[in-house]
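Sequence in, structure out. Go.
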Amino acid sequence: MEVPSDHDDGHVRLADTTNKEQGREHADKHHGAVHSVIKPGNKVLLQQPKHNKLSTTFESKPYIVFERKGNCVVLARHGKRIQCNVSHVKQWVEALLPRETHRKDDVDFWDRPDEHGQEGQTAEIAGHQEPRPSRVRHAPAHLKDYVR
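Output:
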């Protein structure tokens, strides 16, 4: 049985579509969703299954992104190619040089003289250590007549 309709429900469909889109945008903003910036040539880390509570979330050696189609990425390492979703990889950040490998002529920030021409804070601490602050201790009031 059909119900006769005198009106066009196009405006209702349009309102429904806009409300759904606004809801999606709000949810993305609330969850901090961002578009992936991974592109071919980037180095990425691949997520690995959790074997136990001590295993890491991502593999330690990076892959190179060979190709990207939408949410699908093709990764390559040592001639082996893997295809996975872009949500299972994260951008690999090059590690900074460790502190020991700095050149000798590099001057540490804290060892530089400040505006007054004085040496940095590390020199003060190394030569003389100030005692830690402590509160003033008093005997309880009910023990004022106690003699030691």
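Check: The mean pLDDT is 82. Strands lie at 43-46, 63-69, 72-77, 80-85, 89-91.
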